[in-house]
Amino acid sequence: MKILSEFIRPKLVLPKGYNKLLLHSCCAPCSGEIIEAVIASNIDTTIFFYNPNIHPQREYEIRKNEHKRFAEKWHIPFYDGDYDRKEWFERIKGLENEPERGERCTKCFDMRLERTALFAHEQNIPVFTTSLSISRWKDINQVMKAAHRAAAHYNLIFWDYNWRKSGGSQRGIEISKRERFYKQEYCGCVYSLRDTNKWREQKGLALIEIGEHYYGDS
Predict the structure, then answer these.
(1) Cα–Cα distance between 6 and 175 in angstroms, integer?
(2) For the segment 28-39, what is each residue's pLDDT rounded down to a tens digit?
(3) Maximum Cα–Cα distance for the chain, whole Å?
(4) Neighbours of 139 (CB within 10 A)
(5) Whole-model pTM?
C-alpha cells in the first residue's frame, strides 16, 4: 500500500461524524483519487457503479471491469447496478440534441443519483458522494444539485466535497497513468459519442476507437 504515500492529501471527515460512505462511481479514472483519498482517511467506503447511459455495451463493460479491478486491488466492496438502458432513453426522450451540460445531462444525473440514493437507503449507508463532480468536463453545480435532490428524497446526506480542489484532478490523472486505466474518449452516452465524433471529423481527427487507448500509452 505504498502508493498512498505518493501524494499529500488533506484528512477527510464525513459530515455529522459518520464514517460510512457510498461512492457513486462513473469510471476508474474519475474515482482513483477519491478512492485512495478515502482509504487514506480510513473512511469505510462502498462503490456503486450505476451508469446506464454508457453506450455501446462494450464500452460499458470495459469501464465497469476496469473499475472493478481497481476496487478489488483495495478490497473495497463493488456493486454493479442495473444496465437499464431502456429507462435511460425514456428519461432523456426529446433531449437528444441538447448540448453537453444541458438539460439532457441534468436528466441523466438525476436518474443515476436517484438510484444511488435508493441503494444507500437500502444498505443503511447515511452518506453518499459521486465521482461525477471531479471531472472538469462536467458542470459541478449541475451535479451537486442533482445529488442533493436525490439525497433529500431518502433523507440522506450528500457529501458535496469538491474533489477538484487541492490538486485532486491532477492526482487522478497521475493515478490513471500509474494504473494504466482505460482512457475513454467521450462522456459515455450515444449522443456524446455522436457529437465527439462529429467534432473530430470537423478537425480532421480520427474517430473514437472503443477499447483501444489507455493512460500511459505513448
Answers:
(1) 10
(2) 999 999 999 999
(3) 53
(4) 17
(5) 0.93
